[in-house]
Design goal:
By secondary structure, the protein is α/β, with parallel strands linked by helices. The chain has three domains: 208 residues, Ribonuclease H-like superfamily/Ribonuclease H (Nucleotidyltransferase, domain 5, 2-Layer Sandwich), CATH 3.30.420.10; 112 residues, Arc Repressor Mutant, subunit A, CATH 1.10.10; 52 residues. It has 13 helices and eight strands. Helix 4 crosses helix 5, helix 8 packs antiparallel against helix 9 and helix 9 crosses helix 10. The longest helix is centred in the C-terminal third of the chain and has 32 residues. The two termini are 45 Å apart. 30% of the residues are buried.
Length: 395
């Protein structure tokens, strides 16, 4: 087992919404969004120059804040396109505060403890020596509780150099970036400010997002309301089963430090993110997935490694992943599964056909005395059960 250690990362954190749990109040958002913009420490100076240029271009002398853009969606899109050129990744948490209350977390302290434990189990298990900078203004109460939680649970030692500090937003363009990302995600997840343009926002940010953790997770949005065809009546069952196998694998392996486990979990999270928040019908190419998960390892990930050690091993563990000539996706319909079965057939049948030819030739050469699959009942059963008409011709 090769253990993976992702070091020298710096997260700049800011939030959208307040930690106030009474969402019936007029100005209290239903969602609490926490975004972390992740950078390599070695590139901070170069990326800071680029971010400052973006800030000056779009905000002149002011801060790069989402609230200054508001509902000017065309302007937000222009800024996001420039931001997408920066070398960083996004980790985000979307908390439905109404559901938090229904789960019994009716007080701020309980809410803080819950959110802190969620972030700790995901973000810090992936980046053990993460340095954190957070905006003090506007988020001080929550961020102080977060800082205390991390310091109490992760006492620094020679192998764990975690640091946490506050950095006022007006002085830190990186924290301003996190503010802009949080406000942008709000246009997707918070019903009070939702806009259809958020689909474009998400498409622009697609390759920047490492993970979006939405709590609680729900599949009702994707369920079909009626059975349009004979096959589509199975779609909801396929969707529920697919998400269950994916969620189950992530939950079992999200804290593993084994390199291959980390990359498999990252692959599933990227497929889920695209399915849930960008386009539930699109197949994602292997190159796109490799580009995203490469952030988590120093290994050069080849397509062969990706297919054999990531996709194939996930399927070996009964995780459902649809594939086609166009890439991979979360299976959500009969058509997705049929694509996968058809694609598998194009791989399996030629192999079986070659074995069938070899078996026939050896039988002829030995006057039927030697059957190459005699000691392998499973293969013998496959060859015996396949009609010659189903096989590829001898030509």
């Amino acid at each position: 087992m090769k253990e993976i250690t992702i070091r020298n990362k710096h997260a700049f954190i800011d939030e959208y919404g307040t930690s106030e749990l009474d969402t019936t109040k007029e100005r209290v958002s239903k969602k609490f969004i926490l975004s972390a913009a992740l950078f390599d420490r070695s590139t901070l100076e170069d990326e800071k120059v680029k971010l400052e240029n973006i800030r000056k271009k779009h905000f002149q002398t002011g801060e790069m804040k989402s609230s200054k853009i508001g509902n000017n969606h065309k302007r937000r899109i222009r800024i996001l396109r420039d931001i997408a050129e920066i070398d960083f990744k996004i980790y985000a948490y979307i908390i439905d505060k109404e559901q938090i209350v229904s789960e019994g977390l009716k007080h701020k302290k309980s809410f803080y403890k819950f959110l802190n434990s969620q972030i700790d189990s995901d973000l810090f298990s992936t980046f053990p020596d993460l340095k954190i900078s957070a905006d003090r203004i506007g988020s001080e109460e929550y961020m102080i509780s977060f800082k205390k939680y991390i310091e109490n649970k992760h006492m620094p030692d020679l192998f764990d150099e975690m640091e946490f500090g506050f950095s006022p937003s007006p002085d830190d363009v990186f924290v301003q970036l996190s503010d802009f990302i949080s406000g942008t995600l709000a246009r997707k997840f918070n019903s009070k400010v939702y806009t259809v343009e958020s689909n474009t926002f998400m498409e622009i940010l697609e390759n920047k997002i490492l993970n979006i953790i939405e709590w609680p997770s729900s599949i009702n949005f994707f369920k079909k309301q009626e059975d349009v065809t004979e096959n589509s009546k199975f779609d909801n069952a396929i969707l529920e089963t697919s998400l269950h196998t994916i969620d189950h694998h992530i939950e079992l392996n999200k804290n593993s430090r084994d390199e291959k486990d980390v990359l498999r979990v990252a692959t599933l999270r990227f497929l889920l993110m695209n399915f849930k928040y960008i386009d539930s019908n699109r197949f994602i190419t292997a190159d796109e997935i490799i580009d995203n998960i490469s952030y988590l390892t120093e290994r050069t990930i080849t397509k062969q490694f990706f297919m054999q050690q990531i996709i194939a091993k996930l399927r070996d563990k009964a995780v459902l992943i649809a594939s086609s000539p166009y890439g991979y996706k979360v299976p959500s319909s009969w058509n997705d599964i049929d694509y996968y079965v058809g694609h598998s057939q194009t791989v399996i049948l030629p192999m079986v056909n070659r074995l069938r030819h070899a078996r026939r030739k050896i039988k002829l050469a030995t006057e039927g005395k030697y059957d190459i699959v005699e000691s392998r009942p499973f293969l013998k059963g496959i060859l015996s059960g396949i009609n010659n008409d189903e096989m590829i011709s001898d030509e």
